[in-house]
UniProtKB/TrEMBL annotation:
Residues 16-134 form the Glycosyltransferase 2-like domain. It holds the Pfam family Glycos_transf_2. It comes from the Bacteria. Transmembrane segments: none annotated. The keyword Transferase applies. The keyword Transferase applies. This is Glycosyl transferase family 2. InterPro entries: Glyco_trans_2-like, Nucleotide-diphossugar_trans.
Length: 269
């Protein structure tokens, strides 16, 4: 029986053999390894790891959205997942994922539990339920498992504007799920746990500075349109004791609103 699950890994400057071992990969996979700071030709190679088919794409490029889109274009399995290179999968994750999709044919995408490192938690599913416009923004890309044909048919892709290696900071995962909902795909969350995140330093968060607030404003333009400034103010007001201690609420809001205005001048890519 052919494999049904394929993990799509976005990596940067990694040794592939070590990466496969560290992630505990036990399914087929596509790995896009972006070689930042290196000058070498692009390479595409097929290899086996513990009896599984691994496609490795070595690329001289940067940007997590580009990496995920490249992996998606080279995928060919029924079920796919967008993974980071610091995820460690539990033994038996493949069958857990397949069973959950088989038990829920109504789901185009399932958001599984992958435990984040302490201090970086944004979600933890405690029930099975539909994900909607009110709660989709909590989920990182690595929680997303999807029926590949649904993503391809709706032409949903990751933005090249946001995330590591892109012009603006994180948000590519929220924008991707936003576009999935907009395309009419059915998203559900599940309590099934399939792995955890290895502790490491954030590649994008450098404090609540000008860039943080400005880039958040740009993202809010693409997520919320005409409501971006209102929801941006609400977001900062709600988190003012954490985010605005240094700059103050009103300066932080002004910078975020400047980002919203800048977003209006950009073409979505």
């Amino acid at each position: 029986m052919p494999e049904r699950l394929q993990i799509l890994v976005s990596a940067v400057n990694k040794n592939i053999d070590s990466l496969l071992e560290n992630m505990n990969i036990s399914s087929d996979a596509v790995i896009v390894n972006q070689r930042i700071g290196e000058k070498a030709p692009d390479i595409e190679e097929k290899r086996e790891f513990k009896g599984k088919d691994i496609l490795v794409l070595q690329r001289n490029e940067k940007g997590v959205g580009l990496s995920r889109n490249t992996a998606l274009e080279h995928s060919d399995h029924e079920i796919i997942q967008f993974a980071d290179d610091d995820i460690i999968y539990d033994d038996g994750y493949v069958q857990k994922v397949l069973d959950e999709f088989d038990n829920h044919p109504e789901a185009d995408l399932l958001l599984f539990n992958i435990k984040a490192q302490e201090g970086r938690e944004t979600y933890w599913n405690t029930d099975f339920a539909k994900v909607n416009w009110k709660n989709y923004g909590r989920y990182p890309s690595y929680a997303v498992f999807a029926r590949r044909e649904k993503i391809i048919d709706k032409k949903v892709r990751f933005s090249l504007l946001f995330g590591g290696g892109a012009p603006y900071m994180n948000g590519e995962d929220s924008l991707f799920l936003h576009d999935c909902l907009k395309a009419g795909l059915n998203l559900y969350r599940t309590t099934v746990v399939v792995g955890h995140e290895r502790p490491n330093e954030s590649t994008w968060f450098k404090g609540y500075n000008d860039k943080f607030f400005f880039d958040r404003g740009v993202l809010y333009h693409f997520l919320y349109g005409k409501m971006a400034k209102v929801l941006g103010f609400r977001y900062l007001f709600k988190n003012r004791n954490i985010m605005c201690n240094e700059m103050g609420l009103f300066k932080s809001v002004k910078i975020l609103w400047d980002g919203v205005d800048h977003g209006k001048t950009l073409e979505k890519v």
